[in-house]
Each structure stands twice: as C-alpha cells, then as structure tokens.
Amino acid sequence: MKTTSHLAAVKAVTIAACVLAAVSPEAFAMHAASRTAGFGAEVKRRIMLGTYALSSGYYDAYYGKAQQVRTLIIRDFDAAYEHFDVLISPTSPTTAFELGAKTADPLTMYLNDVCTIPSNLAGHPAMSVPFGVGDDGMPIGVQVLAPMQAEVNMFRTAAVLEAAVVEGVSR
User: Fold this and answer.
1) Is residue 4 part of a domain?
2) What separation in angstroms does the CA of 66 have from each of 16, 60, 73, 116, 119?
3) In angstroms, rounded to a whole number, what is the distance separating the alpha carbons of residues 101 and 168?
4) How far apart are CA 77 and CA 145, in angstroms?
5) Tens of pLDDT along 131-152?
6) How many Cα atoms within 13 Å fall on the side-chain side of residue 55?
7) Residue 159, number of CB atoms within 10 A of its CB
8) Would 148 be classed as within a structural domain?
9) Does 60 reside within a domain?
10) What is the pTM for the complete model shown?
11) How far, in Å, are 1, 45, 115, 120, 121 from residue 124 at the CA level?
12) Which domain range does residue 46 map to?
C-alpha cells in the first residue's frame, strides 16, 4: 500500500501523461514504458493489491484497520526495545527455495514474507544475514531488528552473527 500511495502522489506525472497522449503518442508510449520498467510481475501484483485496498469503499475496511494494527505493532516493539537493544528473528518460516521455484504460487511467496513484515510496518530497521544451511542444503537467514536510530547496534550484531557462522558456531 505504501508504494501505491507514493505512486498516486505523483499526480503531476499522471496529468502530464494525459497531455502527452493527446499531443504525441510516441512520447506517451515512452512515458508508459518508464512507469513500468523495473517492476516485475510480483511487484506489479503487490501494487495492484495496495491499489485495491486504498480504493473507494475499501479504505476504511482495510487501510483504516491496518493503521490500527500498525499502531499496536509499534507499541509491542517499543515495549521489547525497553529490555533489549536488538531482536533476532528468522527471516522466513522456511529455508530458502530455489530461484523461481515459487513464482507460480504467489501465496507461498507472501507467506515467506511473514517474518519480515512487522519491522517494516513499525518503520524500524532490520537486516537479514546468512546463518547456516538447512537439512535440505538451502540457506537459512536470520534478521536483526533494531529500534529507530539504532542501526549501529543492528550492524554490529549482524557482523557478530556472520562471523559466528563463518567460524561454524551455528552448525
């Protein structure tokens, strides 16, 4: 939804596109290509979901409720950071999967994002680092989460975790 709202904020570009379409079809085609370049199928799918949630009639049902949940998540993180400098969490509920293996199953791909969503919703920094290999031979990632303005602690913790993996501590 955040990307959708940011893209929607660029109304001047949209108006310019309408003018371009009337004046020069070639210029409009170039504009349309520049608006879609770099957006793969998954990104476009997520933008469409965000656009749907922000559309008339669904704003209160989805966006309003999501903002309320976001506030609760921020409060929970704030409470945790009163006791800990950083938090450690899995990056995903499973080991990595082969590149392209889940593209036909968007729901499975969304479910693999479940562990990374809370820090994004709270607006807190987080980073994923390699943390060994699973029984299936695929990489395992852990994420280091930190409160706002505490990136230094996050980077230091991540460096310690990566060094431990190199030394074989996580195996």
Assistant:
1) yes
2) 32, 9, 10, 16, 14
3) 29
4) 10
5) 988 899 888 999 999 999 999 9
6) 7
7) 12
8) yes
9) no
10) 0.66
11) 17, 25, 14, 6, 8
12) 1-55
